[in-house]
Amino acid sequence: MKKKKKIIWKEPLGRASRPYNPWRDAGKDYIFKRKTAEQVCKFIETEMCHNKGEFAGRPFMLERWERKLIGHLFGWKHRKTGLRRYRKFFLFLPRKNGKTQITSALGIIFLVADNEPGAEVYAAAADTQQASLVFDEAARIVGHNSNLSKLIKVFPGYKAMKCEVDSGYWRVLSSEAGTKHGLNPSAAIIDEVHAQKKTELMDVLETGMAARRQPIMVYISTADYAGDSPCNRLLDYARNVRDGQIKDQSFLPVIYEASDDEDDWKSEDLWREVNPNYGISIKPDYFRRQFKKALAEPSFENTFKRLHLNMTTEQEKRWMKMDDWDASGQQIDQCELEGQPCFAGIDLSSSIDISALVLYFPAQCACIPWFWVPAKTADKRIEYQMWAKEGYIKISKGRVIDYSLIRQQINECAKRFDLRDIAYDPYNASQLVKQLGDEDGLPVMEFMQTFKSISEPSKELEKLVISHKLIHFGNPVMRWMASNVNAIEDKNGNIKLAKPTKDSPLKVDGIIALVMAFGASLASETPGESYLDQDEKEFDKTMEEVYS
Question: pTM to 2 decimals?
């Protein structure tokens, strides 16, 4: 018979180097009931099972760190009333450490085993799809257990379940807080707090708990970007409670995070410490591959740190290492590109600034750019004047760019090369595009400047540059623009390229045009199913799965 591991309840919660001690602030009012803690853990392990991946069908045997946090959450009671000590629980955990399974188990306990008559449990998130993840997992747990199925009736279409004993229920909510007043929650699970832009939903749920005997708010999140946000404010408070700066007996902080100031993010020992399920639900080989990608691709480093190490990062990061850009692919004579298939990207910006046309030749991994700037603007920028003398920039007479010059160049390219598509940003391009398509009979395609459209071609182009395969013929204007590009990251790890600040004099138009041309070439490889044609929500879901 396998001997059960002894649980030492006084072990630290969260990272060993930054412990939270529940006994420190308990005082004389609260007592830890070990028997209760172990009963809750036993309930999970005997009545619940895993439903996905390699553990599907197996009992939900809690890991040591899971037993500790669940035991403390339910084991601490008020000495006189016997009611729950903790009314807020903040779990700050990197991705793929099993948080959905944990919170699903918590939701079921809050519904049927929390000594709360007529319980109202709510799973909430920034959108209904995210909020449904915890509910759907709980529904699967109920469906695979005959005892739970007798207690709970699931209504999948309504994203709700009902306790047959006392008519308590569990519902899914989205972030539209205006319609949530009047609720009487006994428990609320807020998933992915970092995606909450406002606190209104959390405030509505918390204030609705006033009539409950032992209500609880459960906050689950990975790291947000640096700056003021509901997640970062909650995290700061949780850190202060953890460190004893704030005494709050009712707040349970469990924080797994790395620090820029104190930790080496490249250390596997740190990965293991910050990810308590490292080697269990998180496979080391996968983690190492993600780490190598972060080393190789500057735009992915922040994603790795934020999602896998819970490090609060800036949203923007330099996109390209110039050493990689300078290590261009094998040089060829541009004459070799005559008649070859290519795709164009045009970024017109404003008529008083620089505009760019870039051709990308997929077979040769080569690009050729053209740039235009009005004479009035060139007079103020000495580098524009220098590049114009060297033939890298064309000066348009007057205060604004004459777009007919760009049209003429595109038509010349269509005669010289096998021009398959012209990708354009609809901003400022309507008249020129109409002329190219309707009058010149050239193929044009709209390319919106969104995370959806930009992310995949930006990342694939970055790989091409890092592998030193892109042939750019050493164009100094393109090099300057490549050095200016920042990658702005969204919460799913998608990126969008931009200049350092909105009002920065640094330009990136040639790189944006190259990304559009490159994206058009990718779209042509899978006609009818390209990322440009996918439903936006489906695309975001796909990208989240790839980078989670």
Answer: 0.68
